[in-house]
Write a structure and sequence with these properties.
Radius of gyration: 29 Å
Order of helices and strands: HHHHHHHHHHHHHHHHH
Shape: elongated
CATH architecture of one domain: Alpha Horseshoe
Helix content: over 70%
Largest sheet: none
Strand content: under 5%
Structural class: mainly alpha
Number of helices: 17
CATH topology of one domain: Serine Threonine Protein Phosphatase 5, Tetratricopeptide repeat
Number of strands: 0
CATH class of one domain: Mainly Alpha
């Protein structure tokens, strides 16, 4: 009976070892997560290493170590960890999703598309995956493809502001300015404080020669961000197109006040001064633009034309 008790004790002890190892692995994993949240990525990586040593099939440890390596800009190392997580769990959608982001960092755009395809295969209603794949297609100049993906993201999530905005921007590239404006309108309907959209919509209106509408949008940008130099510059250009030369110069002046090294502002102010027959002032502005940007060909040309007046 004593011998039987000893055998049973050995058996119980032998099966408890993997349980203890798993418990310890989870402890290291948890410690790694805490360090990761504190942005101690090297420390987190060390804890994930320990967790993986105890449990070589610890999917989450590989995934989280990949995140830490990504934060350390060790992109190849991160991909290796995501690969391992996917090897253990081939349906790990998040691992594919983050691996894609790393591949974009490495400019492996086709590889990132393949990862998004897999994410969508696993999770067909994952709006972010369609949206992100659209962004990658933009990098590949597949404008129709990105529009299709943004549209699918919007179909899944009708309040997806970034998808509306980027779809509008893609339509803008196709010179579908009315369609672009409709998407910008929807973006603003969802988020009325989205400063960038007003500016982009204003530029689309300029292309449709709706200069008053464009000025209203640039006004809104300036209301939301009083030091947005592009908004002042673009409003000045719209006023110039309406022959409001004095108003245009005021906006170019404001642009230069905020950023004294904005070559385009001097260049456009020089053009407007020429319209007011202030040829000396125009030459001074073209000269300033050239000083800031010595390869500014148009400024050289316009200054040359000005000296011939």
């Amino acid at each position: 009976m004593k011998r039987l008790f000893i055998y049973i004790g050995i058996y119980i002890f032998s099966i408890s070892i993997p349980i203890l190892s798993q418990s310890k692995a989870e402890e290291f994993w948890g410690n790694g997560n805490t360090k990761y949240k504190l942005e101690n990525y090297k420390g987190a990586t060390q804890d994930y290493n320990k967790a993986i040593k105890l449990n070589p099939n610890y999917t989450m440890a590989y995934y989280n170590r990949g995140l830490a390596k990504k934060s350390l800009q060790d992109y190849q190392g991160a991909i290796q960890d995501f690969n391992k997580a996917i090897e253990i769990d081939s349906n790990y959608a998040e691992a594919y999703y983050i691996r894609e982001l790393v591949k974009v960092k490495l400019q492996d755009y086709q590889g990132s598309i393949h990862d998004y395809d897999r994410v969508i295969e696993i999770s067909p209603n994952y709006a972010n995956a369609y949206y992100a794949r659209g962004l990658v297609k933009n990098l590949l100049s597949d404008v129709q493809g990105e529009i299709k993906d943004y549209s699918k993201a919007i179909e899944i999530d009708s309040n997806y502001t970034e998808a509306y905005y980027n779809r509008g921007y893609a339509k803008d590239k196709l010179e579908d300015y009315q369609g672009a404006i409709r998407d910008y309108d929807k973006t603003i309907e969802i988020n009325s404080n989205y400063t960038e959209v007003y500016g982009t919509r204003g530029l689309a209106k300029v292309k449709l020669q709706d200069f008053q509408g464009a000025i209203q949008d640039f006004n809104k940008v300036i209301e939301l961000d009083p030091i947005d130099t592009k908004a002042y510059l673009n409003r000045g250009l719209a006023k110039d197109s309406l022959s409001d030369y004095r108003g245009a110069i005021q906006d170019f002046n404001k642009t230069i006040e905020i950023n004294p090294n904005y070559a385009n502002a001097y260049y456009h102010r020089g053009n407007t001064k020429r319209e007011l027959s202030d040829h000396s002032g125009a030459i001074q502005d073209f000269t300033k633009a050239i000083k800031i940007s010595p390869k500014y060909v148009d400024a050289y040309n316009n200054r040359g034309n000005g000296t011939c007046q």
